[in-house]
Amino acid sequence: MNSSDGDEELPEVGDAPLIIDVEFLEEEDENLAPPLDSAEEIRANRSRSPMELPLSLPTPEGRARVVTVINQKGGVGKTTTVINIAAQLALRGFRVLVIDSDSQGNCATGLGVDKSRVRTTTRDLILTPETAVDSRHATAVDNLHIIVGDKSLIGLEQEMMRQLGREKRMKEALEPLLAHYDLVLIDTPPSLGLVTINALVASDGVLVPVQTEYFALEGLALLAGTIREVRSLLNDRLGVDGVLLTMHSQTLLNKQVAGEVLENFPDLVVRPAIRRNVRLAEAPSHGVPIHLHDPSSAGGKDYQAITTELQHRWGLS
Ligand SMILES: Nc1ncnc2c1ncn2[C@@H]1O[C@H](COP(=O)(O)OP(=O)(O)OP(=O)(O)O)[C@@H](O)[C@H]1O
Ligand SMILES: [Mg+2]
Which of 9, 17, 149, 260 would staple 100 via disulfide (CB 3.0–4.6 Å)? Predict the structure, then answer.
């Protein structure tokens, strides 16, 4: 009984509108499909906009340039770059401060500093900015100081959550030090946490080491998004000082990826590409930068040339 009542409410099949109307669909398709040119334009815009990396501004007069070395992708040569550019500039007479904001603490090892003897670290710099001056340590290289990162940075982000102005602690801490250096170079972990955000807020520019392997451009797109957000919310001065091609070999893949990065960022790529070179990988085990380990190696020469180019970009003469 009930089911026949319900059936009576349904329209007769003959009255129901046609579901498939070929002519209508064809017309719609034509309207929806944009001409080839504009389809390509849209695709080009889509792939271009997330990759926009803003150029950085010059350093304000009378203080150090602050530069964060960053790539959220791991193992691309961030720490190697920090150690060797910092050491090269110090060797050339510039006053350089390295801040290691990675709990792996590899900058200290690579610069011959025994972490087990260090009492004050980047953790202290961030939690008690007024102690910044005392957080520094000398290294094996003249003119080069370091604030050491170590495992005490693990868990710091949780503690900072309760603090006001938590993204600006490092900037505040660095303020009294800036007049005493030409360059402050900050190493970051391969993740985007509050400590890395602190580094970006304190910085004039970023240097981006990119390993010329597959996924390099995805890493750059991720970073471009991070920079956009930090610029709009926390530091509108932040820009890119340079993109470095690292661990480069003459393989087809390496060459193709280098070509793509150059095509996307012709003005940002700093030349030459840094070659894959075992001397660079060995140097940290001796606690020295490449210029003390083997300056005439391919890695030694590449970092010297890169440093010269950056010296111009940073206005250090
Ligand atoms: N040009 C190079 N040639 C050969 N080996 C290199 C080169 N650059 C870096 N390495 C080696 O590659 C490894 C990763 O480098 P590095 O630690 O600098 O990367 P990272 O980006 O700091 O890593 P993480 O994301 O873990 O902090 C290290 O063992 C380093 O010695
Ligand atoms: Mg590192």
Answer: 149
Q: Whose CA is nearest to atom 9 of ligand 1?
A: 77
Distance 187 CA to ligand 2 centre (A): 7
* Ligand 1 pocket test, candidate residues 79, 153, 195, most atoms within 8 A of CB: 79
Looking at the DSSP bridge assignments, the partners of residue 69 are: 187, 207
Q: Quick one: CA dihedral 228, 233, 239, 240, positive or negative? A: negative
Question: For position 133, what pLDDT does the model report?
Answer: 94
If you average pLDDT over residues 263-275, what whole number do you get?
96
The pLDDT of residue 8: 52
What's the confidence (pLDDT) of residue 32? Answer: 41
Q: Identify the residue whose C-alpha is closest to ligand 1 atom 27.
A: 189
Question: Closest ligand to 273 CA?
Answer: 1
> For residue 57, what is the DSSP state?
P
Strands (DSSP E) found in the chain: 65-69, 96-100, 137-138, 144-147, 183-187, 205-211, 239-246, 269-270
CA–CA separation, 74 and 229 (whole Å): 21
Q: Is 54 in the pocket of ligand 1 (CB under 6 A)?
A: no
CB of residue 253 inside a 6 A radius of ligand 1: no
Domains of the chain: 61-313 (3.40.50.300)
pLDDT given at position 163:
86
CA distances for 15 relative to 11, 18, 19, angstroms: 6, 9, 12
Give the pTM.
0.85
Per residue in 74-112, pLDDT (tens digit) is: 999 999 999 999 999 999 999 999 999 999 999 999 999
Residue 49, token pair as written in the block = 């906009």
